[in-house]
Amino acid sequence: MDTSSASYQSPSGQPTQRPSNLPQSRFSESQNFAIDEENTSPPVEQNVSKLRPCDACRKRKSRCVVNDGASKCVLCDFHNQRCTYVEVPQSRKRKSVNLEEDVRSIKIRSPGVESQRRFSQHFLPPKNLDPPIDDYANLKGPSLLKKTLGLQRHRHGVYVGSSCEHEPDLIRLSSIAEGVFENGPRSFRHVNERDSFLMQPDEGTEHYEEELEDLDAIEAIVSPHGKALINLYFRIVHPSFPILHKKVYLEKYERTHREFSPAILAAVYILALNFWSYSSELANLQKPDVTALEELARKTLSYVINRPKISTVEAGLLLLQTPKSDSWSLTAQMVAVGQDLGLHLDCSTWKIPSWERGLRKRLAWALYMQDTWASLVHGRPSHISSSDWAVKKLTEKDFPENAADEDDEEGSTEVEKGRQLFCHMVSLAEILSGILQNLYSVRAEQQIQDVGNDATRFVLSKAKPLQIRLREWYADLPETLSMEDVKVRKLSSTGYLHLAYFASEITLHRRILRTLSCCNDPHLLDICRTAAKTRLISAMGFVNRLKPEQLQSFWYFASKFNFALIGIFQSLLCVTAPNKEEATFYLTRIDEYRWTLRVSSKSAEFLEQSMAMIDRSAKDLKTVCLGESRYTLREQDSGTAPSYEQSVAASYEDDYQPLQDTQPSGEALQTYFAQYPNENFTFQHGFSSNQDEEAPLWAWDENAYRDPDSNIMPENSHEMV
Question: Domain residue spans in the chain?
Fold first, then answer.
């Protein structure tokens, strides 16, 4: 359908010929997204210039609207100033047309970014260079973006905290029926009786004037493949990491790429480029310059932090998923921005669109996951406190897409499976947070140090309720999230969920192993090391069973560390081995595991980073572990009753021993516990580990230490070295 000559209504109500340079639809009409042509065209003035803003609006880069019969535009009337059309629009300074001078200038300055900025106007079609919508409230027709709180185009909202300079009670007294109190260019928006946001204009913030140039530079890098890359992102990445709203994103892109924050536009393109070969439209074409995109993304993200919006957190989280990104400081910044946006609060009663409430909840939990896993990866304290976290659990209604929205093209990801994966990853992050707080926090480390020779027993009692939660989490996984559930010609990201589970288990055992250095009880050592060994073998078996459909899918940012953690755990078992034979066993396993990662890295390049981490941690490991002087004979106790510490360890063995014929008698344990029905493992230092009132500590479960992905015992798990 030719829309180049379509007519539209001017502000005066008279039909006017539609300018030929207005943007055409960038998606098929079948997608049924709202298109408001008037909002993408320049404003009309009655007397001086039909399609030209007044002098003041041009300086502000604001939309110039003249009401019917008015002599001034709305903004000039509001500011009580003259509305003139006398100034000549300043033309952009043209760059040198000499190619040699351009190339020389680009080499001197930043390669890639400046060149894309410079030539973006030449490479982008004129329809892509129209000004973006100034205020979504003025959109004609249906749109998801009307009344949005966190994705407004020209202003941003910051949550008003209870102890800040703005007194909440005074703000509420100043409110009007619509829930908005104007205060010059700023206003307060009330989302419920208790919570308010200070809305401020983007104009005047640092680097705001460069935003359109940055957007054009980003689009020029990928042009003319922007639409195809966005489709690729929503086919493969989005189902497993649903932190965007698909229809909102496509609605905005349909009008113009200039409606986005530069960082989120670049971040989507960067992640989509990882799956370039999975697009039949793109596979045989040359890929755009990813390095230039990454440079622009990082730079523009640092700019928009000064005017935070939901898209700021979205962009930060997506950039943190890229293989080269691993920034603890960026995670901290995103948590801070999320708090500015009120993502840590319960938004279920807020007066905002229902789709935005769901988006905020998904984004909040994605931020929680990022903070928790980054805390593990970097060995740092979490930024999120449970006392300041009020976000409700995710439900099905928080996810707008369903199986009907799934793409049938080869290499796509299942939408419904992605929703379940995301929710279970969130609940696993909550368990991991408990592991880090109870076993790795500064307070926990001090408690372990204070109990001295009782450290192993203390850590075992702390670990037990956490292990119960992990076991229950795994038991609750639906069949659709099993590693065997892979559809033909579909990518599956369930691998990163199962890997995260093994990483959580290993993190638990890693802390237990560290306490064994001061333990002189050989029976206790054997039990704890056998348990750790069996978990290690299960994790290695999982990695060996990964399929191409899983390796080539989207992997969560922590996966490269989680793969490395398996190798690091092997190194820990090796360096703490009580004899040379056991050390040799683990050295062999390390070599086998590195080979598996090397072969698999052909399908998942980020595994090369995992191997590099293992190599750094295992440097000179063979020389250290095989030195004869390291090993001393341990005296074996015989013919004596088990000590209290041994009894605790035996119950640990019940949960983790892999073979039926080597497990202690459950009846004997029941007899032991019958003697101490009220035992809560309280130590002389006053620490009580009875954290789970409902589940008894050290409960008997002979199958608890089987490979969670199989009913068959892990290979070589019977070897007692």
Answer: 155-201, 415-645
